[in-house]
Amino acid sequence: MVPAIPRSEWMLDPALSFLNHGSFGATPRVLLEKQHMLQNEMEAEPVRFLEREIFTRLAEARRRLAAFVGARTEDLVFVPNATTAVNAVLRSFPLKSGDRVLVTDHAHNACRNTAGFVCAQSGGEVTVAKVPFPIRSSDEVVDALLSAVTTRTRLAVIEHVTSPTALVFPVERLVQELESRGVHTLVDGAHAPGMLPLQIDRLGASFYTGNCHKWMCAPKGAALLWVRQDMQESVRPLAISHGATSPRPGASRYEVEFSWTGTDDPSAYLSVPSAIDHFASALPGGWNALRARNRSLALAARDLLCAALEIEHPAPDDMIGALVSVPLPLTAGEFRPDVLQRTLFEAHRIEVPVIHWPKPPHRLLRVSAQAYNSLAEYEALAAVLREKVRNAL
């Protein structure tokens, strides 16, 4: 499978096999040029750009992003990244002593740290639901979370696509089951926009966040926070600024407050519509074709890696998006950075993460599939792994 979009359209090092799009994304040249044009416009007249025009510009960018992810514009605001959104929600949530926040052992470390921080302040507790991996069915995810719910569980932070294990969780079922039990849900969809088709409004969650810089390939510093209408009065940004007392006709305090948290560079937010348009026309079939192509490539990569490592598929096909993790043999060696990860980069020019999950000596190797990747890159990685298996890695 050849790249869907030529590698030259990105600024990635041509000597590097970049199989780690999932960590920070990569932005095409044309979108960086769009961002630079916006920055030049801002610097030509900062007052006009940041005071007279910014709310109108942000509202239009939010409208475009909301349509892309299946949400009402009024319920969606921009934040710099999903971590900021998770902090805003958790640090605004009214926890009392003894209340519990439910997370999974597949959660992003930043989310678990935030949950621990707010519980330490409020006297609450973090409950960790253990989801198996390798995994046979998404039913195991549902069973693990629901069995961890108690009468004191107030909020559950659930992943749409897990970071270490690269699993697509059954968020529709999870949200329905948890919300019906009186547990508010915050869906960490950091990897979801651009990887998965979204209809956030129909999900029924209390809160949803996702990054635009990962699978949408927008410039770094653009993410979304969606808050259900009945929860918006309780959610405040991390920085309180003019929006707390500056009414704008037709806009809620939630919208206004998140639209201005102090002087910053909004060009990444304003570039999001260009990212949506770019990939809508970059190949026949637009976003649907790109998502399908990347998923197909990820499944092919998984097959190659599992064959090289002589292991079974660690997850069913319906739990895979454009990101795949496979277990590696245990090691008693160096953990940070992992010896294998360093060798792959230094000796073979392959950028791919080795993740110690759930804790050392257990390890996972995670690969991403984006438009600039080709099947040959995973074949080369599999060949290296096959040789290393013979030598016990």
Order of helices and strands: EHHHEHEHEHEHEHEEHHHHEHEEEH
**What is the rounded distance between the termini?**
28 Å
- Would you identify the regions where 5 or more consecutive residues have pLDDT less than 50? none
Question: What is the CATH architecture annotation of the largest domain?
Answer: 3-Layer(aba) Sandwich
Biggest sheet strand line-up: 2-8-7-6-5-3-4
On the 0 to 100 scale, the average pLDDT is 95
User: Which bin fits the share of residues in helices?
Assistant: 40-55%
Number of domains: 2
Shape: globular
CATH class of the largest domain: Alpha Beta
Determine the CATH superfamily of the largest domain: Type I PLP-dependent aspartate aminotransferase-like (Major domain)
Strand content: 5-15%
Structural category: alpha/beta
Radius of gyration: 21 Å
CATH topology description of the largest domain: Aspartate Aminotransferase, domain 2
Largest sheet entry: 7 strands, mixed
DSSP strand count = 12
Number of helices: 14
